[in-house]
């Protein structure tokens, strides 16, 4: 039983092929720069050699075709024919209130994802392109969609409503949805398993910090609050996204700089965050390297990033009246010892004590980085959104 997992972005597409009998990854890869000249496909068969090709990939349909060709390639492939793929699972960022769990794709599901374009203009259109590209290349294969928002559907009204006229919620569904739910779900459960304690008895703060980042307060095993909002722009400072700001800044800047709605959205999503403050990079590796060399702008970007993150941790301690476990995950959370160190350095009032040696260890497994006498367990748990998508897909096609 083989399941192909796809995470389609506007100009990229990441994939993983699973053998569901033992949940092993047979191959993974990504296509970048779709629709631009010299698109790149990186294909990594498990245990084999990474293989890169540069060619013109005009759209997602051709991207999927290239992925299927790589998966069945005589030299680099991992199966004889695409007929061996039993189902395809897609990450979909915005499911709003329409989808509380994963579903099989049909005409109505696609229509609903389309209806939600306005609530995730950067993400949902790309997901539909991915779904339809699979339809064109493999018309008989069942597809499943797994939503970033589903895990957060348990939030209470007081956490998901904004204090604006209620008619905007009734008419336009303006509310907090939250994202990265698949990851927050996976790492909170994995943390409880690692600690050998029931998740239902724990207050957990999960910090998913990658290119995009969000924090979630997980109490009694469910999401009770999360830092991203109606779109993935709210909350933390991210690679190129501003996160929280005074909403009055938006009309003020639009007026002063004569910006359109599209332009101001683009500025806040693509030209803000670490990139804007450092003036040089959105990548935490480059920020910390430049900081080590004394670059003032990168140092400020790092300090602002860490400060916002720490304030959110504090607010979720307040939201849950305590915290038992803090989990770091995703690109920065799993790899940046200095981010974890600086955040925890200022959480001593909670009784957080980090073990500097454990914090430095690099590993692909869940691990504790706090000392035995720390009042809060601090863990690093590598996320695995693709595995959750593969499992949901497998479960739904069995029904
Ligand atoms: N060793 C590292 N040290 C610091 N940051 C890292 C390291 N490795 C990766 N990152 C950060 O992780 C980010 C990507 O995280 P990831 O979770 O893969 O993001 P996304 O899924 O949103 O593309 C990069 O932008 C980079 O800043
Ligand atoms: C929802 C979101 O922000 O996703 P990503 O971190 O993959 O950009
Ligand atoms: Mg991600």
Write a brief structural summary.
Catalyzes the formation of acetyl phosphate from acetate and ATP. Can also catalyze the reverse reaction. By secondary structure, the protein is an alpha/beta fold. It has 15 helices and 14 strands.
Overall description:
Homodimer. Pathway: Metabolic intermediate biosynthesis; acetyl-CoA biosynthesis; acetyl-CoA from acetate: step 1/2. ATP binds at residues 14, 208-212, 283-285, 331-335. This protein has 399 residues and is of the alpha/beta class. It folds into 2 domains: 2-147, ATPase, nucleotide binding domain (Nucleotidyltransferase, domain 5, 2-Layer Sandwich); 181-385, Nucleotidyltransferase, domain 5 (2-Layer Sandwich). Helix content is 39%, strand content 20%. An 8-stranded mixed beta sheet has the order 5-4-3-2-1-6-8-7, with helices on both faces. A 6-stranded mixed beta sheet has the order 11-10-9-12-14-13, with helices on both faces. The longest helix is centred in the last third of the chain and has 25 residues, at 296-320. The chain is globular. The mean pLDDT is 96. It binds adenosine-5'-diphosphate, acetylphosphate and magnesium ion. The site of acetylphosphate has 8 residues, from loops. Adenosine-5'-diphosphate binds at residues 210-212, 239, 283-285, 330-332, 335-336.
